[in-house]
């Protein structure tokens, strides 16, 4: 079916995705319209009813196949109406015939009037016995209602304003249009609610009929000529406003003008679908002609509207059609819109995710199509994610974006080994094996060895560095190692000194466990990886005669060995002291600290010979000669901070005394001590020894700091005291609660004095028992009488042993 974007859309907007898709209703409809012409149609969720100019009514399925046919009249069918159940149908025709009958029952109304009947509408709930009502319209609007005796009686709802040309019944409200305007009638209150006058009275109402559409039970949409009133909302009137007015009123929420003549209306969520009749002027003849009808999706605003989409439809015979020949019917349940014309019925439906993907693929927006398919994979029916992905890869390859195409293979091909191999051969055909090589799977899945070998040969022919990189990155079990080794050796015959190929060959030998050949190549290249090879595969027996060579091309070998394992090269630690002292002093002190195998006397001798003060200080302190180490810091380094730090680390009172004695005649040292010893030594000891009249730098600041430190210590002690008091009180309360608890006394307990059971054998006999908090129990008569000075009684056992409460429990646990 051919659809054109309207001229209102510029070139950029034409790239926007359509909102609807179209197809002709074919099968039986095609056969009908070859001999007859469509005059009206109504839509139910289950089927369609089509009326023709030759007085036939056809019931169709949603594919357009004829399921039933009724010969109603020899002339044009004007309107068909169905109730919500789809079980009853009303039909009216140009010769005045009116029929209302059940599609699956025998009930029927049949009458012929003396004038053409233009409209008919059955009650939406006609299937109910209480709702046997319908309206017809010709020169007047009649309401028919079946009485309790199964007789039909009619009531005139309106007349005198020309022919009734349109009617829509929803819920309890009937809306109709005549030559003067639109009326709404409330079937419950039997009141006419409103009159909406026609805007453009210059148009013939028979040529440009009114279009009515209920959006819901209280919202009516009116289209007439070029005017659309959206939305006529029926509202309840407040009791205080009623007087002699109807209980309901209508409020027009939005109204706007359209460019063309309205032929039909339908709701689409909060938007409108508008079928328009279009007339244009020929540029050649300057005469007016009938153009393709338009189907627009419009967003109503308060005084205007926004056009969302606009399509020009190539319906059959549009050149001869008039505005009154077009009708727009819709199915609420599925958002299907039927454009009815004499020679054609076109179905418009909202585009689904498959249609969205179709459009993206058509516009070559493959990445967006792939993303849309992944997001909606449960809802798409015609597309497969893999097919879209493969099309995307082909598109990228055709465009020359080989690297992007190869990168996308990881996500699109996933674990499908067969597809991977297929794509690799495609890349080979276009000479782009290098582009796909970084993205080949290396684990799950694993491709045929031939695939990996093919890529390695490609690199070996043109890019040694790339070849070496793949050998390093790819596991050796992906390809036939011997085949690649032979290929490398063949290339070395042409370029025997190529270091990249030699190193790569060594790696291949290593994977093949041919360590001897690998070691020989590394030694030839003087490559540092030789040490890793030796350690990893325990090749020390193979290098006994090559130690000097190894040391020659890697002077840091012992240092690296020590960093890797402090114990492995312990026999060389004494030698390392001399080497560090000679060539690498910054690493000497860290070595002395970490090594547990170096001879300290030898190290001290070397450091003293070279006057390495820091190293000597460390060795003296490690050997237990802290006083000499401190003396060296003070006399050689003259660093009071380091001396104080050293004294703090050793935490030795004699060292602090030595430090004070050494510093007492050196004002800078005194300042340093005053600033730092407050937390380790009583500052008074130092202050008392300072000579009167000695000038000490920053003495005031130092004394202030001592006082601040002292104040901080007092505050800390007070804080700790508060915490201890609070904890003691908490524990005391806990102990008191524990001691206040009851104690179980049974026949197993004995008196600690007489060793007989505490409880008497005769429970009726009176007795007295004393139980102490220590859990010792006595007969009252077995305890000695309390002294005259104190009425309190004490446990004899605990008092004798000087034990506290609960001791009996501890004794039992023991």
From TrEMBL:
It comes from the Eukaryota. CDD domains: RING-H2_Vps41. Residues 751-799 form the RING-type domain. CHCR repeats lie at residues 530-672. One of its GO terms (biological process) is protein targeting to vacuole. It is found in: Cytoplasm, Cytosol; Early endosome membrane; Endosome membrane; Late endosome membrane. Pfam families: Beta-prop_Vps41, TPR_Vps41, zf-RING_Vps41. Keywords: Autophagy, Cytoplasm, Cytoplasmic vesicle, Endosome, Golgi apparatus, Lysosome, Membrane, Metal-binding, Protein transport, Transport, Zinc, Zinc-finger. InterPro entries: Beta-prop_Vps41 (IPR057780), Clathrin_H-chain/VPS_repeat (IPR000547), TPR-like_helical_dom_sf (IPR011990), Vps41 (IPR016902), Vps41/Vps8 (IPR045111), WD40/YVTN_repeat-like_dom_sf (IPR015943), WD40_repeat_dom_sf (IPR036322), Znf_RING (IPR001841). GO terms for cellular component: clathrin-coated vesicle; cytosol; early endosome membrane; Golgi apparatus; HOPS complex; late endosome membrane; lysosomal membrane. GO terms for molecular function: zinc ion binding. PROSITE patterns: CHCR, ZF_RING_2. It is a peripheral membrane protein. Plays a role in vesicle-mediated protein trafficking to lysosomal compartments including the endocytic membrane transport pathways. Belongs to the VPS41 family. This is Vacuolar protein sorting-associated protein 41 homolog. The lineage of its organism: Eukaryota, Metazoa, Chordata, Craniata, Vertebrata. The gene is VPS41.
């Amino acid at each position: 079916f051919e659809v054109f974007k309207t001229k209102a859309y510029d070139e950029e907007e034409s790239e926007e995705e359509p909102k609807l898709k179209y197809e002709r209703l074919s099968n039986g409809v095609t056969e009908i319209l070859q001999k007859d012409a469509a005059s009206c149609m109504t839509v139910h969720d289950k089927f369609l009813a089509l009326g023709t100019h030759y007085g036939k009514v056809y019931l169709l399925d949603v594919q357009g196949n004829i399921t039933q046919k009724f010969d109603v009249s020899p002339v044009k069918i004007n309107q068909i109406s169905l109730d919500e159940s789809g079980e009853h149908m009303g039909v009216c025709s140009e010769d005045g015939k009116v029929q209302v009958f059940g599609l699956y029952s025998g009930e029927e109304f049949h009458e012929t009037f003396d004038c053409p009947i233009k409209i008919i509408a059955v009650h939406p709930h006609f299937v109910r016995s209480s709702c046997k009502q319908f309206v017809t319209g010709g020169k007047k609007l009649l309401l028919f209602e079946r009485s309790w005796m199964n007789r039909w009686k009619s009531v005139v709802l309106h007349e005198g304003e020309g022919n009734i040309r349109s009617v829509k019944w929803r819920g309890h409200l009937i809306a109709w249009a005549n030559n003067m305007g639109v009326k709404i009638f409330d079937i419950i209150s039997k009141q006419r609610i409103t009159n909406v006058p026609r805007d453009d009275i210059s148009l013939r109402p028979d040529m440009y009929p009114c279009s009515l559409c209920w959006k819901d039970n209280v919202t009516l949409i009116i289209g007439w000529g070029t005017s659309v009133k959206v939305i006529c909302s029926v509202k309840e009137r407040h009791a205080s406003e009623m007087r002699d007015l109807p209980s309901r009123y209508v409020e027009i929420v939005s109204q706007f003008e359209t460019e063309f003549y309205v032929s039909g209306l339908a709701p689409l969520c909060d938007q409108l679908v508008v079928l328009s009749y279009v007339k244009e002027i020929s540029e050649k003849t300057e005469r007016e002609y009938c153009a393709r009808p338009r189907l627009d999706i419009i967003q109503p605003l308060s005084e205007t509207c926004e056009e969302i989409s606009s399509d020009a439809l190539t319906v059959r015979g549009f050149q001869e059609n008039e505005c009154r020949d077009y009708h727009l019917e819709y199915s609420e349940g599925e958002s299907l819109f039927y454009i009815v014309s004499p020679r054609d019925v076109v179905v418009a439906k909202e585009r689904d995710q498959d249609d969205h993907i179709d459009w993206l693929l058509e516009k070559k927006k493959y990445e967006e199509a792939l993303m849309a398919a992944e997001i909606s994979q449960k809802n798409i029916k015609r597309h497969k994610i893999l097919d879209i992905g493969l099309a995307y890869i082909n598109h990228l390859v055709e465009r020359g974006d080989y690297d992007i195409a190869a990168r996308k293979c990881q996500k699109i091909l996933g674990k499908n080994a067969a597809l991977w191999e297929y794509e690799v051969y495609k890349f080979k055909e276009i000479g782009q094996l290098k582009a796909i090589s970084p993205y080949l799977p290396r684990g799950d899945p694993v491709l045929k060895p031939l695939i990996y070998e093919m890529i390695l040969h490609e690199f070996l022919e043109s890019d040694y560095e790339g070849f070496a990189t793949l050998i390093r990155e790819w596991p050796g079990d992906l390809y036939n190692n011997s085949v690649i080794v032979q290929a490398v050796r063949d290339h070395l015959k042409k370029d025997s000194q190529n270091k990249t190929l030699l190193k790569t060959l060594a790696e291949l030998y290593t994977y093949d466990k041919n360590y001897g050949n690998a070691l020989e190549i590394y030694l030839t290249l003087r490559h540092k990886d030789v040490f890793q090879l030796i350690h990893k595969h325990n090749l020390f027996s193979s290098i006994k005669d090559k130690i000097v060579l190894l040391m020659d091309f890697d002077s840091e070998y012992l240092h690296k060995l020590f960093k890797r394992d402090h114990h492995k090269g312990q026999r060389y630690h004494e030698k390392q002291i001399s080497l560090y002292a000679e060539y690498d002093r910054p690493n000497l002190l860290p070595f002395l600290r970490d090594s547990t195998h170096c001879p300290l006397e030898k190290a001290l001798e070397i450091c003293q010979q070279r006057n390495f003060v820091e190293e000597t200080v460390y060795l003296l302190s490690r050997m237990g000669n802290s006083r000499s180490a401190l003396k060296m810091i003070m006399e050689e380094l003259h660093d009071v901070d380091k001396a104080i730090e050293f004294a703090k680390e050793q935490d030795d009172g004699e060292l602090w005394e030595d430090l004070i004695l050494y510093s007492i005649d050196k004002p800078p040292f005194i300042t340093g001590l005053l600033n730092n010893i407050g937390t380790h030594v009583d500052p008074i000891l130092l202050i008392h020894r300072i000579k009167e009249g000695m000038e000490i730098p920053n003495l005031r600041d130092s004394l202030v700091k001592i006082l601040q430190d002292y104040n901080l210590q007092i505050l800390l002690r007070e804080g700790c005291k508060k915490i201890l008091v609070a904890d003691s009180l908490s524990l005391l309360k806990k102990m008191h609660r524990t001691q206040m608890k009851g104690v179980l006394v049974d026949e197993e307990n004995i008196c600690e004095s007489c060793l007989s059971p505490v409880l008497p054998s005769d429970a009726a006999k009176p007795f007295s028992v004393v139980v102490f908090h220590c859990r010792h129990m006595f007969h009252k008569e077995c305890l000695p009488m309390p002294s005259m000075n104190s009425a309190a009684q004490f446990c004899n056992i605990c008092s004798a042993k000087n034990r506290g409460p609960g001791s009996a429990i501890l004794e039992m646990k023991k």
